[in-house]
Amino acid sequence: MNPYRYGVQREWCWRGWYTRYSFWQPASSGGTPLILLHGFGASLRHWRYNLRVLGEHQLTYALDLMGLGAAEKPIAAYGAEFWAAQVHAFWQQIVGQPAVIVGNSIGALIALTCAYCYPEMAAGVVMLSLPDPAVREELIPRAIAPLVSGIEQIFTAPWLLRALFYLVRRPSVVKRWAQLAYANPACVDDELLDILLTPAYDRDSDRAFVQMTRAMSRPDFGPSAKTMLKTLSQPLLLIWGKQDRFIPPMLSQQFQQVQPRMQVMMLDHTGHCPHDEQPDRVNGLILDWLRSHELARG
Q: Any idea what DSSP says for residue 5?
């Protein structure tokens, strides 16, 4: 592991809780800053192949979302709008000018929520596999919705989730889970496992896992992705791996229907984390897209 690839790391405090961010600054100034947001169970270290490459072109930040990575693990009202408020405060205090927000998975939903709730901070949004909290509600018939809700309450009981947490943080289980996220199992190396496992052994990590898992099962976890996409005027780029097993790639078609201006790139031989599985391709796509919208340096 080469820590230098993660840029210059700093601590930052939000609402009395500490978290970590890093940045990489190009030799000459100019262009629109980037803010990189990781997905569930990951951290800013998941941008191991992107931070330096993008940072050599634009000032690039990566942030640990509260409850994840090296951030504190408080009891909090986790959800897309909670994390978007964290990112907005970070942008106000550290970045200070409109930025392109780049996110993977839940990080993509948070990036979109930032642009929707705080349009002044977002010069554009890049989404790498985008979940939509509203899809679940659309798929459940109203007649059985109360039954489904009751079953979910049973299976998201705190004692059960805590027991599940201690099971799933075992290295063998994390490795199998990670291999499902990648089309190429060889990408699941020792460094990736360390990225995923280390935060799971932090103090109160079990408590945060329970809070976040329960939050993700609720319909109010975040605004509808389709609703947000319809209203945004900023440039949008959606990148999706065709072999994504976690979020159906077919959703990209629905998203493009509601926002035809959005550029969509589907990648072969790629799973749920395109930036880590095909970093050269993804870095190139992002830089080309920045140049096409005059958001790049020079």
A: G
- Centre a 10 Å sphere on the Cβ of residue 185 and count the other Cβ atoms it contains: 12
Those residues with Cβ within 8 angstroms of residue 88's Cβ, 6 or more apart along the chain or in another chain: 114, 117, 118, 121
CA distances from 22 to 29, 192, 262, 274 (A): 17, 18, 29, 21
Which tens digit of pLDDT belongs to each residue from 174-220? 888 899 999 999 999 999 999 999 888 888 888 887 778 877 777 78
Query: In angstroms, rounded to a whole number, what is the distance separating the alpha carbons of residues 110 and 87?
Result: 9
pTM beyond 0.70, yes or no: yes
Give the β-pairing of 60-63 and 17-24: antiparallel
**How confident is the model at residue 135, as a pLDDT?**
65
Asked if 247 and 131 count as a contact pair (C-beta separation under 8 A), the reply is yes
Q: Are 84 and 20 in contact (CB under 8 A)?
A: no
d(CA 84, CA 154): 29
- Statement: residue 151 has pLDDT above 50: no
Cα-Cα-Cα-Cα dihedral sign, residues 65, 66, 69, 71: positive
